[in-house]
Fold this protein.
Amino acid sequence: MAQRTPSPSGALRAPHRRAASGTRLWTWLMLPGTLWMTGFLIASLVLVATLALGTTDPLGNPRFGFDLDNIRALADPAYRIVLLRSLGFALIACVVCLVVAYPVAYFIALHGGRFKNLLIAAIVVPFFANYLVRMYGWSVVLSDGGPVLKVLRAAGLADGHTKILQSGVGVIAGLVYGFIVFMIIPLYAALERMDLSLIEAGRDLYGGPLRTFVFVTLPATRQGAAAGAVLVFLPAMGDFVSAQLMGGPDQIMIGNLIQDKFFQGQNWPLGSALTMLMMAVLFIGMLGYLRRTRKDEAEATR
């Protein structure tokens, strides 16, 4: 009896079947967690959106209804100023995080050698501490008698009237310290995946290291920078701890307003309306990021 030999096409299809099977397995494993998170996200958004149309009784308790007064109240110029201030603080924090994080990620990815994992751990592990505790510690460092101002005064860069806390600089410093790790990790991952031969070719084409960095390294890692910007911007926009601990009355952010309406003003419907306004701004930013990501992926597959 002649022995049947497997056809080449069957041998080629076998790896594809295994890959498809592995993909389906991971899809099923991710499904419960995805449904859990999606369900709670949708339920919370529906609850907040419904509550934004409600009212409060004489005792300050929220009551569901269909009242547009809270939506109309968002047109108040005071709320618009706070929203724009929050946007400005979050955007500035993104830029500062990018400027500070890029050299750190670049050094670790390209020059860290066998110490890469240790260096990444040294950056990430301190952020396991409670966020509020870290912000309290940072406020002490930036206080009038703290080490930062002492060094600046000793160097002649500040005088006795210079303050970091109770100012916009203090709020941005808090946002940068709180979320910079979310910029370092995506940049490090992008630089780690980058083909180093591109840098060598860039040096041959552009000569100096600065031009090579601008025309080769930055475009090759822009997706990591965009991911880091989103990961910093989204929590920074809704943060209230930095503004509360390191800012003053003129530096409150929209997160502080929401907190005040829910916990001090006992006006949950207005707090819910402000929350929906903030979520709408964040949703627009997220849509822009996803659109840019799809465009980059389409260009990469051409």
